[in-house]
Automatic annotation (TrEMBL):
Contains large globular domains required for ATP hydrolysis at each terminus and a third globular domain forming a flexible hinge near the middle of the molecule. These domains are separated by coiled-coil structures. Required for chromosome condensation and partitioning. This is Chromosome partition protein Smc. The lineage of its organism: Bacteria, Bacillati, Actinomycetota, Acidimicrobiia, Acidimicrobiales. The gene is smc. Belongs to the SMC family. Homodimer. It is found in: Cytoplasm. ATP binds at residues 32-39. It comes from Ilumatobacter coccineus (strain NBRC 103263 / KCTC 29153 / YM16-304). It comes from the Bacteria.
Amino acid sequence: MFLKNLTLKGFKSFADSTNMVLEPGVTVVVGPNGSGKSNVVDAMAWVLGAQSPKAVRSQKMDDVIFAGTAARPALGRAEVSITIDNSDGTLGVEFNEVTITRILFRTGESEYMINGVTCRLLDVQEMLSDAGVGRQQHVIVSQGQIDAVLNARPEERRAIIEEAAGVLKFRKRKEKAERRLDATEANLLRVQDLLREVR
Ligand code: ATP
């Protein structure tokens, strides 16, 4: 599995549609200060489902939409697509290539797509968590994060490793199932009380 392609349109400083073709191995993005290198990484985090504006270095989510310059008006929507080569089947879907798209309109509406078909954020998250790219996105290591990992409490560090190993989603599902069981037991008790009353 590797990233094949990244397309940004109206995302942060990338007003025009910009396509980046990536090869297996190491890719280095170089450019002067403020030219948009970190915006490229933000775009990756965003299209993979980042929910907090902080995760994409913003105050509010619509800050990711091109805000305009002296020469160019602001845009009404941001769109990012990422294409992942899945020929080794890591993503657990039958496609050799998977393109994830996220669109955000200034009105607040947003849309996710997998291979051009509209889907829910949850569908994107579930597919990615099979490959260890979970909600916390530990695949993107930003400046200062190494220190944060080293200084984390043991249980926090364990959660990071579990997510990268793809275990966290099973723990979450187990917790959800346990909550449902508790609710069902409470319902059963209530039914038994009612039965006792009518007898
Ligand atoms: P450095 O090397 O200093 O870390 P960088 O190449 O990583 O810089 P970025 O932080 O990616 O640069 O880009 C910053 C630029 O992106 C700034 O010029 C900022 O004005 C611009 N920018 C950020 N958000 C938007 C937006 N919504 N609309 C237009 N431009 C934006």
